[in-house]
SWIM-type domain-containing protein (Paspalum notatum var. saurae), 678 residues
Amino acid sequence: MVYGDWKESYNLLPRVVHAIGHYNPATRWYTYTGGRTVTDKSGKTAHVLQRVFWCFGQCVAAFQYCRPVLLVDGTFLIGKYKGVLMMAQAVDPEDQLVPMAFAIVEAENNDSWQWFMHLLRVEVMGKERKICVISDRHAGILKACKQSYRGYPPLEHRWCVRHFTTNLWRHQKDDEVVNKLKVLCGAQDERDFDKLYAELKKMLTKEGKRWMKKQMEKKKHWALAFDEGGARYGIKTTNGAESMNNVFKGIRALPVAGIAMYSFAKCNSYFVDRWGKAKLAFDNGARFGAPMAAHLRNEEKLSVMQIGDAYGPDRNLYCVRTAHGSGPGGERFGGRNYKVQIEEGICQCNFPQLYHAPCSHLITACQDRGLNHKSSKYMSPYYDKENTLKIWEPMFQPYLDPSQWPPYDGHDYCPDPDLLRVKVGRRKKKRLRGDMDKCNGWGKDKYGTGDFNELPGKVRMADPRFPLLEVAYEKDHRAPAIESGQVMPVLRMRTHTHVLLWDERYAPYLRQAGFLDLARVVNAGLPPLDPPLLTSLIDRWRPETHTFHLSCGEMTLTLQDAAMILGLPIEGQAVVHVVNANWAHYVELMLGLPLLSAILETVARKKTRTAGVTTRWLRDHFQVCPPDADEVAVERHARAWLWYLVACFLLPDGSGNTVTSLVLPILSQPWGNIGTYS
């Protein structure tokens, strides 16, 4: 098993990051054991791996071109051993996340957060810039941000607005009040802040007022209007960081070595794909990231309806009058005057000070003076498209397979026995949901707010000792309907059969790739599908535990079972590739055919662009290998047949007639390399 079992994975993890660091020398990683060791029955002693931190040099190099802001958050692991995955991310000019550092720790506590923040400060932040950290209000983070380091500038700490406003919910459970506080947090100038705060106070209960009074003493941490020096760059929440949590949510049940491997693969995928997109946009004339470019277009339109009056002999001071009018109900809007200081790049609306970019009022004044509002004097370089290129430019080097890893002379490690999950029942996969988990925007009418109470009621279990299953899984599963007595139809089964015909000339190639035995089994004819039997198994499958719940107990298929049945290896580098934006290039490289026709066919038939070709396209071009085909043509037909075997037989998905491109980076390699994957 590529990650080892749960216990072995803790010993494998340092070896994985050591191998990554060997081929990517700027990688930094640290372990912490607390001085604890465990001796097994054979007398072998291993150090208890409580924490491990790693960051890739390519990411650290990218940080100097990102805004000096780090989003920090953690997500709990749901594997056999308890733990927390801590992450830090920056933001590029496109408002895309740039992963910076990762750590697996025993729990979220003061000591673990201070350990992570210390390494983050030394290895990622550096001494050159003053960095703002946006996070929740965990005591460990608060304390770590206050610590001073000789030679390092002090940290600016700001609170995530969504986490902050959720805290009010504990004192006053009123959605309208919480939403009002969110608006207050986003107010840009003190005048608007004071007006909104007066309105909020009228809505607060006695307990809510008591809580709010304490928070007003620390308003620079949560109120945008009081963000000193624009440390946030207008970033109000760690939603970006939590989006990264969602990316990693699917692997939280993996052994810890798998998490490190996935973090490397995901970072490499980000750097490859996003650099290509940034280069294309830059070559097409884009100067700023798309969000800032849209902001400038909007502000330039607004400036057309504004009038600026200059003051003083040097015309440094302006009074800008905005357009005004009345709404359908007679309410008046606009007509406000704003003071602008051109040389300092300051406006009374506070936007340039908070976002380090011009507002419409500053643009109006600049145009009156004949100044370029897009110059570096008014625009932070962290919004430049050129910075996007520099962020995603560093190249990762593959760390290959374990047979090519460098010797490891460090300690042997084992998990903390105290972190072993022993609770009866199924592991919790989601945190307790609160106000910040609700959807209040687009889609809530169709898909709901996400409130736990909107999901179906409790699911009756056979044994009251077990906790409830994940209710969210029950929502779309057949089990509740069966339990209520409904007669459910037998599911219809589909297979990809006879898409491509077998040719004995393919045999030497598939033998090199390790797929010949499986190819013989498939060509000999598979047993027919038994829809009633398969439907019964589906009804008894639980995605939380990856097991079938049968009357005789729980059952599942293991990797060893797959190896025995299919004759495929289960040791080697895992197939963890993600969809590559250049997948069409892999198809042309592997099969020698341009993909324009395939893409057009997919768009016409499914009205969407998907990462893969249709089975029809594959059949039209590669169903039969011509008798007089040369060696190159035979090899291409063999690769097409292997692609069909892997994508349509081994790893099918629910797309129907699409042959996925997920495995193309592997199948386009030399034949001997393909068989090294598990």
Notes: The longest strand covers residues 97-105. Residues 440-469 have pLDDT under 50 and may be disordered. The two ends are 8 Å apart (CA to CA). The first helix runs from residue 6 to 23.
